[in-house]
Amino acid sequence: MATIPAALIAHDLKNALSALEGELAFLADAPDVDRAKTAHHHCVDLRRQFVQFLMVYGSEDGLRAHCEDESPQDVLASVLRSGTSRCAHLPHAPQIHLAASDAAPPYWYFDVRLVQLALDAALHNACRFGREQVTLSARQESGYLVLAIDDDGPGLGSADDCDTSTGLGTELCRSVALAHRSGDKVGRIELFGRPQGGTRFELWLP
Question: Which residues, including other chains, have CB under 8 Å from residue 107's CB and lie 6 or more apart?
Answer without folding.
Answer: 69, 70, 71, 72
